[in-house]
Structure formats: C-alpha cells, structure tokens
Design a protein that fits this description.
single chain; 4-stranded antiparallel beta sheet; 12 helices; 26 strands; 20% strand
C-alpha cells in the first residue's frame, strides 16, 4: 500500500491548507487506510468558502433522486499539484434529503451539512448506480395495437422496433435449438430476480432485446452489490464496475495499475457490510467464470472519473452508438443516427453519444480510420491536443483522443414490457445488447465448427469495415453545436456502422 501512497509532502500540504485556510481542525480530518484520501465533515458554507464554489441540490428527473454538486471549484496554485479530486463537487453525490415535495426548479440550495473528501494524487474515484444514459421510456402511441409487440411483421418498424425488426435490419436468422438458459449470477449480496412490479427498465430492455436474438443460447445476468449500496440514499460508495470485475476475475481484487491497487475504500462498496440489511460475507473474488460476451449498459461520463481509475478498468471495450428507423422509413432503408429533440418524443433530448476521449489515446487499430475522418470530413470546430489541455484555444474536443463509438445499432422506439405494461424505450442502452447478442451468435457458429470464441473484435472490425452497414446520415448535437456528422467511413457518431450478420459471420468464420 505504501508504494502507491502520495508523498508525505503532499499530505502535509493539503492538511495545512485545510486547517489554515479552511478552518478545519486537524481532529476533523481522517486519512484513509489506503493513504490516498483526506476526508472530513463540513457545512456547505465551510466548503464553499474553502474552494470558492457554490453548491446546489440537483434532482434527477427520471427517478426524483437528489444530488449535491457544484458547477466549478477553485484551488490555490500551490495546492493543485497535490490534489486530483474533490467530492462532492462537479461529480454529484447522492444524498439523503428531507424534501417531501418536489420543487419545480431542478437546481436547489444544498442541505447545510455534507461530507467533503479531498483526494491526494495517486488514487481514483469512480461513480456508480444509474445508467450513463438511462433508457428513455414513454407509452406507445394510443392507436398502436398491442399485437405489434408480438408481430413477426416489419411494417411498423418506424413506430416500434420489435425482434422481427432487428432480425430484418441486421439479417439475423433464427437461432439453433438445444441450448439452455443459465441461472442468474448474483454476488456481494445482490438479489435477482425481483417482482414484476419492481422490474427495472434497464434490465427489462437489455434482456428483452438479447433473448430473441440468441435464444435458445445461454443468457446470464450478473447482479452486483447489496441493497444498501444499490439503493440506499445514505450510501456514499459511488464507484462503478469494480465489484463486478472482482467477481469474474479474482486477480482483479488485488490488481495494481496506474497507482491504484484493489477497490477504493471510500468509493467502492466494502464487504462485509455492517449496514442494516447489508451483505455480511467477504468481498467475492473470482466466483464466476465470465461469459465470452458481456454487454454493459451502465457507465459514467469521462469527466466524472479520475483518469487512472478508468485506465485500470478499461483495457478492451467496444463502444456502441445508436441508430434509428425514422418515420416513413422501412427496414430496407439505411438507418440514421438518433437525433430526438426535446419532446419529440421523449421529455428530454436524446442523440447518439460520440466524440473523442480526453483520457485514452487513439489505439493503433483505430488510427487510420480516425485520420481518414479528419482528412475527408474535418469538423468545423476548434480543438485542443491532449486531454491535459481541455478547452485550450476554445477547443471543443481532443484531436488526439480515442474515437467513440466503434460501432452502432438501433437505439430508439424499442418495444418492451416494463412492470407488466407495454412501453417504447431507447438509448445506447438498447444498442449495446443488440450488438453483443449478434457477436454471441457468431461465437456459437465458431464453437460448432470447432473454433474458439472471437475475443476482442475491434482490430478485426477496423481492418474489415465492409462487414458493417455504414451510416451516413445524422449528427449528435452538443456544446452549442449541431455536433459531429455521420459520414462515409468511421465517424464519431455511429462508428464503423451497424452489424450485418451474414457478412460478419463469413469474416469471423474465416479466421483461426
């Protein structure tokens, strides 16, 4: 642990600043077991004066949960080199609130007592809980019959995307018979399944998309963390993914990389959990063998997490953007990137995410595709070079960052049942399980032929973009602009494009 601890000079400098400038008595300051954090309880007024910030309480419209956060904060020049992260700050922390009625404004004054944590350089902070883009939901059109949800027809795919629509869009045939469904894999006190009345929209969306594509292949649900860490407003452990990665890879529990070893004692759940109803067993490490394909529709914005926390977690991922069959179009027409303005049809705007990372550099397998995009379709926006130069020269994106996404799949007007009622859902939360399920089908054929599973697919796809349906229409608005454009070749809206099962199958079956 000592080898990853910040230098004692950093610890002393931050502690001295807290006491001399912030009036925080030394007796109020706790140094975490991993030596990476200084934590203390303080009033809002104390923290606002210390870091020259204004805190507010924010309400998440989708579920009414409240968060404490500020828009920006400031540190003295001599302290900046010693501190990587402050929480709660620009990254919101869920907090218990006494508000009984929801206020009409979304930004409210923060409660008068909160915990403040300063992070010394060398340790990371994740965030946990809700999907990065919670699945959008709305009732189906009044005149749409429920029979559409069970139809094998594709005439209404511009209104509701059903399994038949997905099969037609991506030319996916019916699955092989003779496979079984495995039980759910829950760990660290997690509980699944739940009653229909408590069904989560994210889980319903993911499973209802995957089953029709891979059935009767095996499908596995990984359910993480006990009820306290999953649902309690008193939990400040806002980390994401670490307990999941621990459970499917025992070595990850003690894995050291980027000055981080194991789970973060402040931000990740700690087991045994002494809280009421908490899981009393030890942290589960390597208790399940991971499936060959894993679809994740949860995450966080890059700016909400320190770089080294993400770098320790993310070695090989495929990022999926969202497409849409627009009104009046059919499954035989090219899809477009999703762009839904506010109220059309969802309450808030929605478009496919995309852009360039401020943390991860362009990987070698993507380099030619990104350079081609800049050469042939240079965006008309100012940029900066390197994540350490965010906003330099008025730049809106990092010219040297990894391009996002890699691929795309449909992510709008998905027909689902949630809590027993028909709904239309969407988001990249839908796109990920669609693409993952198609890769699972390819694995099945390879295994039947005596071959291994495909492994990390990105290098192969970038070398063979013709196996995907190139999307050349649509944008992803943001930062006061119309956003990047979907163009020929790779683009930071829909990546290389959507899957074409027969072409992808032919490619991967031809590999060893």
């Amino acid at each position: 642990m000592a080898s990853f601890a910040p230098h004692e000079d950093s610890v002393n400098a931050v502690r001295e600043w807290l006491t001399s400038s912030g009036g925080i008595a030394k007796s109020r300051i706790t140094h975490s077991d991993n030596k990476g954090w200084l934590a203390f309880d303080a009033t809002v007024e104390e923290v606002e004066a210390l870091i020259k910030a204004e805190y507010h309480q924010y309400e998440q419209p989708s579920n009414g949960k409240t968060f404490a956060a500020c828009d920006q904060y400031h540190l003295p020049q001599h302290i900046r080199e010693h501190v990587d992260y402050i929480t709660p700050a620009v990254k919101a922390i869920r907090m218990k609130t006494s508000i009984q009625k929801r206020q009409p404004v979304k930004r409210q004054q923060a409660s008068k007592s909160m915990a403040s944590v300063l992070q010394d350089r060398g340790f990371g902070r994740p965030a946990k809980g809700d999907p990065i883009s919670p699945p959008k939901q709305r009732p189906p059109p009044i005149n749409m019959p429920h029979s559409v949800y069970h139809s094998n027809e594709t005439a209404n795919c511009d209104v509701a995307i059903t399994p038949a629509c997905i099969q037609a869009l991506y030319r996916v045939p019916a699955g092989r018979p003779g496979r079984t469904v495995s039980p759910d894999n829950s760990f660290d006190g997690a509980n699944a399944p739940v009653a229909v009345s408590n069904a989560g929209g994210e889980s319903d969306l993911d499973l209802q998309l995957a089953y029709p594509i891979i059935y009767p292949q095996t499908i596995t649900l990984y359910q993480t963390d006990d009820l306290f860490y999953s649902n309690s407003p008193n939990s400040t452990a806002t980390g994401i993914f670490n307990t999941f990665l621990d459970a499917i890879d025992g070595s990850y529990c003690t894995y050291s990389a980027y000055n981080e070893t194991g789970n973060d004692p402040v931000l990740d759940p700690t087991y045994p959990d002494p809280n009421p109803g908490g899981y009393k067993g030890p942290l589960q490490c390597g208790v399940y063998k991971p499936t060959p394909v894993i679809s994740i529709s949860y995450g966080e914005q890059e700016q909400d997490l320190p770089a080294y926390y993400q770098e320790r977690q993310c070695n090989e991922l495929t990022n999926v953007g969202a497409t849409k069959v627009y009104p009046g179009r059919t499954v035989n027409d090219p899809e477009s990137a999703v762009v839904d303005p506010p109220g059309m049809p969802y309450r808030s705007a929605f478009s496919s995410g995309g852009g360039f990372s401020n943390i991860f550099p362009i990987p070698s397998y993507q380099s030619a595709a990104v350079q081609n995009f800049f050469s042939a379709h240079d965006p008309p926006y100012p940029y900066y070079s390197g994540g350490q130069n965010i906003g330099a020269n008025g730049g809106l994106y990092n010219r040297l960052g990894r391009g996002i996404p890699d691929v795309a799949a449909n992510g709008d007007n998905i027909a689902v049942y949630n809590r027993g009622a028909p709904r239309l859902s969407g988001g990249t939360s839908a796109s990920a399980p669609i693409f993952a399920s198609i890769i699972n089908r390819i694995n099945e054929e390879r295994l039947a032929a005596g071959k291994g599973t495909v492994g990390f697919i990105n290098p192969v796809l970038y070398q063979n973009p013709g196996v995907l349906n190139d999307i050349t229409n649509g944008t992803n608005p943001g930062c006061g602009t119309v956003g990047f454009e979907s163009v020929e070749g790779w683009d930071p809206v829909t990546g290389l494009g959507t899957p074409d099962y027969p072409r992808m199958l032919n490619l991967f079956m031809g590999l060893d």
